[in-house]
Design brief:
Order of helices and strands of chain A: HHHHHHHHHHHH
Mean pLDDT of chain A: 80
Order of helices and strands of chain B: EEEHEEHEHHHHEHEHEEHHHEE
Number of helices of chain A: 12
Helix content of chain A: 55-70%
Distance between the termini of chain B: 39 Å
Radius of gyration of chain A: 24 Å
Structural class of chain B: alpha/beta
Number of helices of chain B: 11
Largest sheet of chain A: none
Largest interface: A-B, 30 and 49 residues
Strand content of chain A: under 5%
CATH topology of chain A: MetI-like fold
CATH class of chain A: Mainly Alpha
Number of domains of chain A: 1
Mean pLDDT of chain B: 82
Oligomer: heterodimer
Structural class of chain A: mainly alpha
Strand order of the largest sheet of chain B: 6-7-8-3-9-10-12-11
Largest sheet of chain B: 8 strands, mixed
Number of strands of chain B: 12
Low-confidence stretches of chain B: 328-342
Radius of gyration of chain B: 21 Å
CATH architecture of chain A: Orthogonal Bundle
Low-confidence stretches of chain A: 1-24
């Protein structure tokens, strides 16, 4: 037996991305974090998100004006006007203030439904995938019913039925996002369950909960989490769309989609001010998309 | 090998799988994957189970660990019927009987580094984190992987042979008495196969383990096993000492298997394959002896009833074939053996 010579691990085969700082043992999440820190695009996206989130959270402290207080004499001031850096809207309210306050609504409407859908969807999906059989059939066919409608249409239908308001927008979007997350969770769980290491874990004598916790979750949650991050940008856009249609946040509250709607007639008077909420929606959804791309790469240990 | 120290007894084990299909997901047919298999495993021996794809080898392995529930039969480990034990008893059983899986890729969790993968088995049985880690290091050391170097690596960073060593380490970490190895080397290339086989052999001798070693590769079985069990379509056709079976295979199927193994001697190579065709569909096996449809020496009696597995003379060599009537001392009525091609 002593004559077995193990091939030394060729150090140049391993890109340093895999290894982390020389020789320091890392757990999986440490490795993910370490890789994320080296990814400039993802860092920038995370920075943008952080900036938008903190500006929204700190809106009352940062905003120079009252978001509801307009001025008849100062309507549609141009970008760079004295006292109103980003101009004013059609009622003479400060755009910078409105954008800060609008971010609160848009982010809540963007992140909360995805978070709720992440909880319900992954729970349903993991149950369906792990148990299989009839349970799987029941859950997945139920999800197929929701799948029959395009997501925007479904969101409009649900919030139309429930009535306007932020709370109803969140409910509608949570319902819209649950089926795709469930479907992804189910397929990933089914895949992972078929791997021999799951059987090996059972052969070791481990119980179902221990298997799900230690062997399953890390394999399943990665892809689900990444997918959910991409949904945040979709959610921001649909939430804004609902407000634009008058089904989401109602005036005089500030919300990016709603602002886009009320300002749209002014686009011939003042081209750039009405575009600002759109720019914010674009920036936010772009940042979330790039972040999810980066997360996916960082969380894949096989890369 | 101490005589008459039986560690595992398998009695008339049966398992069939339902084939469902159609619009209403109805039962279409049943595949009898394992159909009345009985054998014993002696403490300290290596029992090789050989047969072609689909003959029920892997199903037998999973039944032995109760990873799937058998339809009928008994599996007794050290006198205890493990099909009648419940949660805690089963857990205790699985501490003593471990399994090494075939596919070195899918049998390791890609998200666990190998130290954690090996330690998991110890953690399951109540070891504290540091203890489990220490045990994992010991087990990795036993299979020739330095934990300091490899412990924190993920499976994708290891070669197939190294992964299979990790699998073996995972089986060893609980200090089992019996290890069921399901084609542990079949997906490795020949040189690595030899390394892993040598490792398995030295572990077996050094730790006093018992193996049930499953393979479709006769050379591997012949090299490693003390006794060989040949399966065909869910049934045992021949059982005997590895050397005896290799020197004088009795069942026409075993003969064909040995004849089909490539020989190192060019003069002994065959002009044409000793067996043609595929095994019959196990959903609808032939009546009587299941091998008769492909058997070059099939007789009328073969279609009527399945031949029982009977010892040849007073030896431990058993065969299920009408060519060897009872009480005859290993001089069958007229099979030409090992000359299948001529």
């Amino acid at each position: 037996m002593a004559d077995i010579v193990l091939p030394e691990y060729a150090p140049n085969v391993t890109p340093d991305l895999l290894e982390g700082p020389a020789g320091r043992p890392m757990s999986y999440w440490q490795l993910v974090g370490w890789r994320l820190r080296r990814d400039k695009v993802t860092l920038a996206a995370a920075g943008v998100i952080l900036l938008i989130v903190s500006s929204a959270v700190l809106a009352p402290y940062l905003a120079p004006y009252d978001p509801f207080q307009g001025s008849i004499r100062l309507r549609l001031a141009r970008i760079g006007s004295a006292g109103h850096l980003l101009g004013t809207d059609e009622q003479g309210r400060d755009m910078f203030t409105r954008l800060l306050y609008g971010g609160r609504m848009s982010l809540v409407a963007g992140v909360t439904p995805v978070f709720i859908a992440l909880l319900t969807g992954s729970t349903l999906g993991i149950i369906a995938g792990y148990l299989g059989g009839r349970v799987n059939m029941l859950i997945m066919r139920l999800m197929d019913i929701f799948y029959a409608f395009p997501s925007v249409l479904l969101a409009i239908a649900i919030s139309g039925a429930l009535g306007a308001g932020l709370g109803n927008t969140i409910i509608a979007l949570s319902i819209v996002f649950t089926p795709p997350i469930t479907r992804l969770a189910e397929s990933v769980t089914t895949q992972v369950r078929a791997w021999e290491f799951m059987e090996a874990a059972r052969a070791s004598g481990a119980g179902t909960l221990a298997i799900i916790r230690h062997q399953m979750i890390a394999n399943v949650l990665g892809p689900i989490f990444v997918y959910a991050t991409t949904l945040v940008s979709v959610s921001v856009i649909i939430a804004s769309g609902l407000s634009f249609l008058g089904l989401g946040v109602s005036p005089p509250h500030a919300e990016w989609g709603l602002m886009l709607n009320t300002l749209r007639q002014s686009i011939y008077v003042n081209t750039w001010v009405p575009a600002l909420p759109g720019v914010m929606i674009f920036l936010t959804s772009m940042a979330f998309n790039l972040l999810s791309d980066g997360l996916r790469d960082a969380m894949d240990v096989r890369l | 090998m101490t005589q008459h120290d039986t560690i595992l007894t398998v009695q008339d084990l049966r398992k069939s799988f339902a084939v469902r299909g159609g619009l209403l997901h109805t039962l279409q047919a049943e595949v009898k994957a394992v159909d009345g298999v009985s054998f014993e495993v002696q403490r300290g021996e290596i029992l090789g189970i050989v047969g072609e794809s689909g003959c029920g080898k892997s199903t037998t392995a999973r039944l032995l660990l109760r990873l799937i529930e058998p339809d009928a039969g008994e599996v007794c480990f050290e006198g205890q019927n493990i099909l009648r034990v419940f949660a805690t008893g089963l857990k205790a059983y699985r501490r003593q009987v471990q399994m090494v899986f075939q596919d070195p890729y899918s049998s390791l969790n890609p998200r666990l580094n190998i130290e954690d993968a090996v330690a998991f088995n110890a953690r399951v049985h109540g070891a504290s984190r540091p203890t489990a880690r220490a045990k994992a290091w010991q087990a990795l050391d036993k299979v020739g992987l330095r934990a300091a170097q490899f412990g924190r690596r993920y499976p994708h960073e290891l070669s197939g042979g190294q992964r299979q060593r990790v699998n073996i380490a995972r089986a060893l970490v609980l200090d089992p008495k019996l290890i069921v190895l399901d084609e542990p080397v079949s997906s490795l290339d020949k040189s690595v196969q030899a390394q892993v086989l040598n490792l398995l052999q030295s572990l077996q001798k050094g730790l006093g383990l018992t193996y049930v070693f499953i393979s479709h590769d006769l050379q591997v079985i012949e090299y490693l096993s003390d006794r060989v069990l040949v399966m065909y379509l869910g049934q045992i056709v021949e059982l005997g000492g590895a050397a005896e079976v290799a020197a004088e295979p009795l069942h026409p199927y075993t003969q064909a298997l040995f004849a089909s193994a490539p020989s190192m001697n060019p003069d002994a190579r065959l002009e044409r394959p000793p067996l043609s065709g595929d095994p019959p569909n196990p959903i609808n096996p032939p009546s009587g002896c299941r091998f008769r449809t492909r058997c070059p020496q099939a007789m009328e009696i073969c279609a009527s009833a399945a031949p029982p597995l009977l010892p040849i003379g007073k030896t431990a060599h058993q065969v299920a074939c009408y060519l060897y009537p009872e009480d005859k001392n290993c001089s069958p009525a007229g099979p030409q053996r090992r000359t299948a091609a001529e």
